[in-house]
């Protein structure tokens, strides 16, 4: 029975309805809510088409569906047996919105939850960055428009053991098939999907435990996290034992997957360091299919690369041990200054005074997320772990005093929580980017470039110039210096960054290829160049970068690139792991149909 297509259709439909049901169920507990998606598109930008690479049928390409090399149904079935029935054939999440599987009720329900991360991370194939879904099966396009697997993975193994990972890896290698590691599908760089690929889905690797750690680099509490653990689960687990750990401000992002591997910023960054700085040890399956324990003593080169050198590039991580810290009182301020009634000069002076006070704020261990445009400065989450209301007020006082001197009014609402664990559910729901509804990129501003008011004024003018072009400037300020004994592959420019600038172009619904190309052009050719010119030494955060950046090797990895490439050669000699902006990604290209080929 297993060897026929009918079996697969029934099997996959079963999974699909189960997944959809889960997605709908989870709607009310999802925490990654955003007010950004309600912002309006500003029209009037010229469209420039993307260059299309030449078609290639050469043997230097990965085997693609439809080609004679593609495994038979029997071959897939054999893999399914090997992974204990955990192989899922992709049925795009959007299929209830299209013929021949159209279902009006299910489609409406899906549209209602489409912009929630939970809808995608509960799926074995869907991704949150619209461009990489390529409208393969978009729920907002007309019922008659295409619903194909397209750029989604063809099959996914829902892994629960290291053997499942090894089986999938070996199958992909033996059959010359593109391989994808998928955790939550948050990746903005398209690295957790791929046309014609076999994926592994790490989402259900949910083991966790508390450890006492002691080596020459760190002594203290630690937490071991399975690769599927997300921010909200990790925080709930840690705080139940009066501990905290470093996660993203968006609580649905995975920890072990792309987040920690790419650097990882969040509310505790100024206090305890980047996500990557927390890693003590990994369990992995490398590109050769070997199970390895990885830490600063054993396979230390791989430790260095996995901790900051980018997700999905060197090995499949099964688990990570991260540092844990004691619970503390945590104070959060929500601050707003509006420009209405102020002269431009006064408003800009107020913004400059905000920037002037950031080092004072972040060097105390606090961080701030803020948005600036011509109408307001909104800083809804200034988070200070270990600080009382009076202490955080004192840190903000120099800014308040400048506002008073300028005769500018402001509102500030400060709440002190008895623990970080109590603050996190609030903090993580205030600002976070929704899934699928925007296109973005970042640039980092070094602290040394904001050393006087002339320089701060240029920064503020740059932000206003960008927001005048119709993008949202979502900004974060941190002190990302090394806390303690750290040696890893984090992008070196992170250490001297004072502000991480994310520029977000809202995308309208229904999605179409033209509107996203307009957004890409605006970001790559107009917005980011403002900051690349102001801060040529800044660089980008590889997890939230512009995936069209032609200079990505330098801008995302800097001086680490050559060393990271060497380490990849050791642990992934056959280049089974690929991402267009991952280390080694320039050695491949994708054809018009997104088939992956050697350069
Ligand atoms: C709504 C939203 C909010 C965000 N907020 C933050 C934030 O607060 N702070 C921050 O720093 N970043 C944030 N990001 C960016 C985030 O760090 C990246 O999207 C990151 O890649 C997500 O990792 P993931 O494992 O959850 O996602 P996935 O898309 O599943 O995977 C991301 C990458 O990691 C690889 N990968 C996944 N699992 C493994 C594994 N087990 N072993 C090896 N490789 C693996 C994948 O192949 C892919 O390359 C946010 C992104 C979104 C969409
Ligand atoms: C695929 O299945 C065919 C028989 O259907 C078999 O001959 C072949 O060896 C299999 N290929 C692989 C790579 O397992
Ligand atoms: C991406 O979308 C375009 C437009 O619909 C289509 O022509 C192309 O084939 C798609 N690519 C893939 C790989 O699905
Ligand atoms: C994936 O596996 C987990 C157990 O590891 C199971 O609970 C879940 O239902 C599976 N999901 C799908 C879609 O098969
Ligand atoms: C403030 O600056 C904006 C943008 O440059 C301009 O449109 C506006 O006229 C200025 N307002 C005043 C009062 O100068
Ligand atoms: C950042 O914080 C560390 C302590 O965590 C401190 O030593 C350092 O001076 C601060 N400033 C910079 C620029 O790193
Ligand atoms: C501040 O504002 C008040 C009332 O709006 C006004 O009376 C006063 O002159 C202003 N002071 C300065 C220094 O601008
Ligand atoms: C202040 O913030 C708290 C916590 O977010 C909220 O409950 C309260 O309503 C806010 N108060 C005002 C006046 O905005
Ligand atoms: C202000 O800072 C910038 C950037 O560091 C520097 O280039 C410039 O010389 C400084 N200007 C003054 C007046 O100190
Ligand atoms: C694409 O979307 C934009 C913005 O919503 C719209 O103006 C345009 O007409 C759409 N183009 C097509 C081809 O549907």
Can you tell me about this structure?
The protein is of the alpha+beta class and 599 residues long. 32% of the residues lie in helices and 20% in strands. It contains 17 helices and 20 strands. It has a seven-stranded antiparallel beta sheet with strand order 15-12-14-13-17-18-16, sandwiched between helices. The longest helix is centred in the N-terminal third of the chain and has 22 residues, at 5-26. It is globular, with a radius of gyration of 24 Å. Residues 1-57 have low confidence and may be disordered. It binds flavin-adenine dinucleotide and 2-acetamido-2-deoxy-beta-D-glucopyranose (9 copies). The site of one 2-acetamido-2-deoxy-beta-D-glucopyranose (NAG) has 2 residues, from loops. The site of one 2-acetamido-2-deoxy-beta-D-glucopyranose has 7 residues, from α1.
């Amino acid at each position: 029975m297993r060897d026929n297509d009918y079996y697969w259709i029934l099997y996959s439909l079963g999974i699909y309805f189960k997944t959809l049901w889960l997605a709908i169920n989870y709607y009310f507990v999802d925490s990654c809510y955003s007010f950004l998606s309600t912002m309006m598109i500003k029209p009037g930008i010229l469209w420039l088409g993307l260059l299309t690479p030449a078609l290639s049928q050469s043997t230097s390409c990965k085997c693609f569906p439809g080609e004679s090399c593609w495994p038979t149904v029997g071959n897939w079935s054999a893999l399914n047996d090997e992974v204990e029935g955990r192989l899922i054939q992709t049925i795009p999440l959007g299929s209830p919105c299209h013929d021949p599987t159209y279902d009006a009720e299910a489609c409406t329900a899906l549209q209602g939850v489409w912009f929630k991360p939970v809808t995608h991370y509960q799926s074995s194939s869907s991704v949150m960055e619209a461009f990489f879904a390529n409208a393969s099966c978009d729920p907002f396009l007309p019922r008659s428009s295409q619903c194909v697997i397209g750029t989604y993975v063809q099959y996914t193994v829902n892994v629960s053991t290291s053997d499942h990972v090894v089986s999938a890896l070996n199958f992909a290698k033996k059959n010359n098939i593109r391989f994808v590691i998928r955790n939550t599908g948050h990746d903005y760089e398209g690295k957790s999907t791929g046309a014609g690929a076999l994926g592994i889905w790490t989402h259900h690797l949910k083991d966790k435990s508390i450890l006492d750690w002691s080596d020459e680099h760190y002594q203290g509490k630690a937490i071991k996290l399975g690769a599927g653990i997300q921010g909200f689960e990790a925080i709930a687990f840690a705080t139940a034992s009066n501990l905290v750990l470093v996660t993203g401000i968006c609580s649905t992002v995975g920890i072990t997957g792309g987040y920690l591997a790419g650097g990882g910023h969040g509310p505790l960054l100024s206090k305890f360091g980047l996500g990557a700085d927390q890693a003590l040890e990994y369990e992995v399956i490398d590109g050769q299919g070997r199970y390895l324990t990885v830490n600063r003593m054993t396979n230390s080169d791989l430790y260095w690369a996995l901790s900051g050198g980018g997700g999905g590039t060197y090995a499949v991580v099964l688990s990570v041990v991260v540092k844990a810290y004691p619970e503390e009182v945590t104070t959060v301020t929500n601050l707003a200054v509006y420009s209405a009634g102020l002269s431009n000069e006064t408003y800009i002076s107020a913004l400059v005074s905000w920037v002037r006070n950031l080092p004072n704020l972040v060097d105390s261990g606090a961080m701030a997320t803020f948005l600036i445009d011509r109408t307001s400065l909104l800083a809804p989450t200034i988070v200070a772990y270990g600080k009382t209301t009076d202490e955080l007020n004192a840190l903000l006082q120099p800014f308040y005093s400048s506002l008073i001197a300028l005769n500018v009014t402001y509102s500030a609402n400060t709440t002190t929580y008895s623990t970080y664990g109590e603050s996190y559910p609030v903090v993580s729901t205030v600002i976070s980017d929704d899934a699928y509804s925007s296109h973005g990129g970042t640039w980092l501003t070094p602290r040394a470039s904001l050393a006087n008011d002339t320089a701060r004024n240029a920064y503020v003018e740059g932000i206003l110039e960008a927001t005048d072009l119709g993008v949202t400037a979502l900004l974060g300020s941190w002190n990302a210096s090394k806390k303690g004994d750290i040696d890893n592959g984090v992008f070196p420019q992170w250490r001297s960054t004072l502000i991480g600038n994310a520029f977000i172009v809202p995308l309208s619904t229904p999605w179409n290829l033209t509107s996203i190309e307009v957004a890409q052009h605006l970001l790559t050719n107009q917005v980011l160049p403002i900051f690349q010119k102001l801060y040529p030494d800044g660089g980008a955060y590889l997890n939230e970068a512009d995936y069209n950046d032609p200079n990505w090797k330098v801008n995302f990895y800097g001086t680490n690139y050559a060393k990271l490439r060497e380490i990849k050669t050791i642990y992934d000699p056959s280049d089974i792991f690929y991402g267009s902006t991952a280390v080694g990604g320039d050695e491949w290209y994708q054809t018009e149909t997104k088939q992956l080929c050697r350069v």
